[in-house]
Specification:
The structure holds two protein chains of two kinds.
Chain A (H helix, E strand, L loop, with lengths): L1 E6 L1 E3 L6 H6 L12 E3 L1 H19 L5 E7 L5 H10 L3 E6 L8 H16 L3 E5 L10 H9 L3 E11 L3 E8 L2 E8 L2 E5 L12 H6 L6 E4 L38 H19 L1
Parallel strand pairs in A: 1-4, 1-6, 4-5, 5-11, 6-10, 7-10
Antiparallel strand pairs in A: 2-3, 7-8, 8-9
Helix pairs in contact in A: 4-5
Chain B lengths: L4 H9 L7 E2 L2 H6 L7 H5 L10 E4 L3 H14 L3 E4 L17 E4 L6 E5 L4 E5 L4 H9 L3 E2 L12 H6 L7 H4 L2 H4 E7 L5 E4 L12 H4 L8 E8 L1 E2 L6 E7 L2 H13 L6 E5 L1 H7 L9 E7 L3 H16 L5 E3 L1 H8 L6 H14 L1 E11 H18 L3 E8 L6 E11 L8 H19 L18 H5 L3 H11 L14
Parallel strand pairs in B: 2-4, 3-4
Antiparallel strand pairs in B: 1-2, 5-6, 6-10, 7-11, 8-9, 8-10, 12-14, 12-15, 13-14, 13-17, 16-18, 17-18
Helix pairs in contact in B: 15-16
Classes of the chains: A alpha/beta, B alpha+beta.
Chain lengths: 273, 480
C-alpha cells in the first residue's frame, strides 16, 4: 500500500495579537514574523498515517509512506522530522505563485504528484489548512484523480492490502465505511490530533536523507511566476467577539452556592432535556 | 501521638468554616503533586501520599491558628497559593498532610503610586496586580512565564524571577516588606522601608523559604513607571553559545541594563525561532525599556557591542517583538500542552542553574553532551541563558523526551531525575548553583548539602529554630 500524506505549513495565527490583525485590515495580516506550524488537520493526517502504517506492518504488509507539501522551504524542517519518524519519502513542490485561496492550483499539483510521481494508493489530507480556507482541496484532488473522497475522517485502519476501514463524522453521528483503494481521505476532527516526536537519535540516523524538490513545471503544470490562481480575495476581516459574562454566586457554604446554581440555572436546563 | 485523618479534619473545621476544609478525594489526590509529577496528573496515576485535607485560609489569623494546631499535633503542612510549582515543593511527602491554600486571600490592600509600592495578600494573582498598577501607568517589573496563573505568595516563597530581571531584578529585589506566620502561630511583619542596616536582612529568611519555614500571608513590592512605547527589541543569529555568553557578559560588564538579555542554543532556538534561524543557529536577543533616552542608549550600546562580533547577524526586530508578546503561559496553553503530552507521551522539562561567566559555557556543554549520551529517548536537548548579572548568568536547560516502556509513575525515575542529577553534578563540579529560580522543592533537595557546603550550618539552623517540630513542608529544601 502506497500512502501519501499532504500537508501545509501555516503561520501560527494564535501568536498574532488583535493589533496585528487590525494592522492588516483591508488586506491581510502580516504573518512574516510568526512561526510556521503544521495545521491541526494535517497533523492528524500525518499521525493517522503512521499508525496505519504500523498496523499494516504488524499484519505483515510493508507499506510505503510518503509526505508532500506544496510551497517553499518553510516545509523542510517538518519534512526532516517526518523522515525521522519513518516517512520514507519527503517532497515539496515549488510553485512560484500565490497559493492561498488557490485550491484548484494546489489540487492539480497534488493530484499530478500523487498520480504520476508517487503512484499512490491512499491519499490523506487535512480537511482544511487554515482560517478562511475553502476546504475544497481534498475534493478537487479526488475529482482530478477520479478517486472517491471520504470527508471528515477521524479514524482509519487497514482491511487487507487494498481496502481501508474509515470512521468519519456525519451530522451528529459517526459513519463507518469500508473503502476500496485508491481513495482520498480528508481528515477532520480526529481524536488523534498530535504528531509523535522523533528522538535525537532518529533524527541523526535519517539526517542524510534528502528532500525531493519538484518544480511545478516538472509535473507538467505551467505556473507563470508571481501569478495568482486565487478563486477569492480577502477584502476585510473583523475580530470575533469572545466577550463572556459571568455571575459570582454568593453563599456561606459550597452547599448553599450549589443550591443557588441549581435553582437559578441548572434546574431549567435539566428540565428542558 | 499522631492525629487520625478524621481528627485533623475535625480540628481544622473548628478553625475555619467547615466548607473551607476540603476532603473531596479527587481534589486531595490532585493536590498530592505539583508540576514535578505533571505526567501523573495528566494520566491520573498518583503515587504520593494523599493529604488529609486542603484548608482554605481566609485571613492571617486563620493561618496562625492552623499552624498552631499543626505544630501542636505534629501535622505536616504544605503552604500553597497558585499551585504552579515545578520542583515538587507542593508534593505531600508524608501521609495525612494538610495543604494550606492561601488563594482565597486575594485582596490588593494598597497601591501607593507616590511611594511606589503595592501591598497585597498572598493569593493575589500577579496578573491581577500587574493589571491594576498598569491602570496607573506603573508595573511590578515581574513577569515570569507563569504570570497569568501564579500568585504573589508563591512567587515570593520560591524566589521567583521574571523575564525582565536584568533590569528589575528577581522577586528578592522587589519585595519591600511582608507578613508571614511561623509554625507556632507567630505572626511577623517586616516593615516597608527603602533600606536599613539594622542587622541581617531578615526578609531573606522568608523569601525563598518554599513553605519550609513559614507561610507568607502578605507582601509589599516595589512599583516602577511603565513606558511600553519605548520598548526596543534586538535580535541576532550566531553559530555558537560561547560567543553568545561572551556578548551577554560584555553587555553586563559595560553597565547596560536591558530588561531582557538572552541567548538560545540551536535546539531551544528551533522551538521558537525556526521561521528565521537556521537549524544550527543560536539566537541572541534583547529588549531595552524605560524612559526614551535610556531605552535608546541601551539599545544602541548593545548593538555596538554585538557589532564587535561579526559572526552575529542582525535580524528584523519584529521577529523578537512578536515572539515576546506571545511568551506567557495561561491556562489555555497549559491545557493544550497537557493534551499534547497525553497523546504523544513526549514530555518537556526544564532545569535551571547559574554560574559565573568563566564556567557557564563549560557547564552547558558538559551537561548537554552527557544527557544526550546517557539518557534514552531524548527528542530535544537545549537551553538558553535568560537572566544575567555582572559576574555570571543562568542556564535554563530545556529538554524533551519520549516516555517509552514505563508508566507515568516511573517517568521521574527513568528520565527526569537522572537528567537533573547530571545537571547538578556538572554544575556543582564547576562551582555553580544547582537552582537559579524554580526553588529546590523536593526534586533537588538531595543536593542541598552539596549546594551549601559549610554554609549549610546556617540553613539547617534556620529550620531547627523556626520549625523545631518539623511540620513545615517536609522534604522541601531539606530532604527527609
Amino acid at each position: 500500500m502506497k500512502i501519501l500524506v499532504c500537508f501545509k505549513v501555516t503561520p501560527d495565527y494564535e501568536a498574532l495579537r488583535e493589533a496585528d490583525w487590525a494592522a492588516g485590515a483591508g488586506g491581510e495580516p502580516d504573518t512574516r514574523f510568526v512561526q510556521r506550524i503544521l495545521n491541526c488537520f494535517d497533523e492528524s493526517a500525518l499521525e493517522l498515517a503512521l499508525r496505519l502504517s504500523e498496523t499494516l506492518e504488524a499484519q505483515g504488509v510493508t507499506p510505503s509512506l510518503g509526505a508532500l507539501s506544496i510551497g517553499g522551504r518553510e516545509a523542510e524542517p517538518h519534512l526532516k522530522t517526518l523522515q525521522a519518524l519513518g516517512y520514507g519519502r519527503a517532497a515539496r513542490v515549488e510553485a512560484d505563485a500565490r497559493l492561498d485561496f488557490a485550491p484548484a492550483l494546489v489540487a492539480s499539483l497534488i493530484a499530478r504528484y500523487a498520480g504520476r510521481v508517487e503512484r499512490s494508493d491512499l491519499l490523506l489530507l487535512g480537511c482544511r489548512s487554515g482560517p478562511g480556507d475553502s476546504g475544497t482541496v481534498p475534493f478537487l484532488v479526488a475529482e482530478t484523480l477520479g478517486w472517491p473522497c471520504v470527508p471528515q475522517v477521524t479514524e482509519v485502519s487497514p482491511l487487507g492490502a487494498d481496502r481501508v476501514r474509515v470512521t468519519c463524522t456525519a451530522g451528529d453521528g459517526l459513519l463507518h465505511a469500508t473503502v476500496r483503494l485508491p481513495c482520498v481521505l480528508a481528515v477532520g476532527n480526529a481524536v488523534v490530533s498530535r504528531l509523535r516526536v522523533p528522538t535525537l537519535r532518529d533524527r541523526l540516523a535519517h539526517k542524510t536523507l534528502s528532500i525531493d524538490v519538484v518544480d511545478a513545471a516538472d509535473l507538467g503544470i505551467e505556473v507563470a511566476a508571481g501569478t495568482s490562481d486565487q478563486t477569492c480575495v480577502l477584502t476585510a476581516f473583523e475580530p470575533i467577539s469572545r466577550a463572556r459574562r459571568g455571575v459570582v454566586i454568593d453563599g456561606d457554604t459550597p452547599h448553599k452556592k450549589a443550591r443557588v446554581l441549581f435553582d437559578s440555572y441548572l434546574k431549567s436546563v435539566v428540565e428542558a432535556l | 501521638m499522631h492525629l487520625s485523618r478524621e481528627a485533623i479534619v475535625e480540628g481544622l473545621q473548628k478553625i475555619v468554616a467547615p466548607g473551607d476544609v476540603i476532603t473531596d478525594e479527587r481534589i486531595l489526590v490532585e493536590s498530592s503533586v505539583d508540576n514535578f509529577r505533571k505526567l501523573q496528573n495528566i494520566f491520573n496515576v498518583h503515587t504520593m501520599p494523599v493529604p488529609a485535607a486542603v484548608v482554605m485560609a481566609r485571613s492571617t489569623d486563620q493561618v496562625a491558628q492552623i499552624l498552631s494546631f499543626a505544630n501542636e499535633h505534629g501535622v505536616n503542612v504544605i503552604p500553597r497559593t497558585g499551585g504552579t510549582a515545578t520542583e515538587g515543593g507542593l508534593e505531600s511527602a508524608v501521609p495525612d498532610s494538610v495543604i494550606i491554600d492561601g488563594s482565597a486571600m486575594n485582596q490588593i490592600l494598597s497601591v501607593d503610586a507616590y511611594n511606589m509600592q503595592a501591598t497585597c495578600q498572598c493569593g493575589v494573582p500577579l496578573q491581577t496586580l500587574e493589571d491594576r498598577v498598569r491602570e496607573l501607568g506603573l508595573t511590578t517589573g515581574h513577569s515570569p512565564q507563569s504570570k497569568p496563573v501564579a500568585h504573589m505568595g508563591g512567587l515570593v516563597a520560591t524566589r521567583s524571577i521574571g523575564q525582565f530581571s536584568t533590569l528589575y531584578g528577581g522577586i528578592e529585589d522587589m519585595v519591600v516588606g511582608l507578613e508571614a506566620v511561623f509554625p507556632g502561630g507567630q505572626v511577623t511583619r517586616i516593615k516597608n522601608v527603602p533600606r536599613r542596616a539594622a542587622g541581617p536582612d531578615i526578609r531573606h529568611v522568608v523569601i525563598g523559604n518554599e513553605g519550609a519555614l513559614c507561610f507568607i500571608t502578605e507582601v509589599t513590592v516595589k512599583l516602577f513607571p511603565y513606558f511600553p512605547e519605548n520598548n526596543t527589541f534586538l535580535g541576532y543569529t550566531l553559530k555558537d553559545m560561547k560567543t553568545g555568553f561572551e556578548v551577554l557578559r560584555k553587555v553586563m560588564v559595560n553597565g547596560y541594563k536591558p530588561s531582557v538579555a538572552r541567548v538560545y542554543d540551536p535546539g531551544d532556538a528551533g522551538l521558537h525561532f525556526s521561521h528565521f534561524a537556521a537549524e544550527d543557529d543560536c539566537v541572541l536577543l534583547f529588549m531595552a525599556e524605560g524612559p526614551a533616552g535610556i531605552a535608546k542608549a541601551t539599545a544602541e550600546g548593545i548593538d555596538a557591542i554585538v557589532a564587535g562580533h561579526p559572526e552575529c547577524t542582525k535580524v528584523d526586530s519584529l521577529y523578537i517583538e512578536t515572539w515576546f508578546n506571545d511568551l506567557c503561559w495561561g491556562p489555555d496553553k497549559i491545557t493544550a500542552e497537557d493534551e499534547r503530552i497525553r497523546q504523544t507521551r513526549n514530555v518537556n522539562r526544564t532545569t535551571e542553574i547559574s554560574a559565573d561567566w568563566g564556567h557557564i559555557n563549560d557547564i552547558y556543554q558538559a551537561a548537554r553532551a552527557r544527557i544526550i549520551e546517557e539518557i534514552p529517548d531524548i527528542t530535544m536537548m537545549g537551553g538558553h541563558s535568560s537572566h544575567s548579572y555582572i559576574n555570571g548568568t543562568n542556564m535554563y536547560f530545556n529538554y524533551f523526551f519520549n516516555v517509552v516502556g514505563v508508566g507515568p509513575e516511573e517517568e521521574t525515575t527513568k528520565y527526569y531525575l537522572p537528567i537533573i542529577s547530571i545537571i547538578c553534578e556538572e554544575t556543582l563540579k564547576r562551582g555553580g548553583s544547582i537552582v537559579h529560580h524554580h526553588g529546590m522543592g523536593k526534586a533537588r533537595a538531595p543536593w542541598v548539602k552539596d549546594e551549601y557546603g559549610s554554609s549549610y550550618y546556617i540553613l539547617e539552623t534556620l529550620k531547627r529554630s523556626f520549625d523545631p517540630q518539623d511540620i513545615m513542608n517536609k522534604g522541601t529544601i531539606f530532604p527527609t
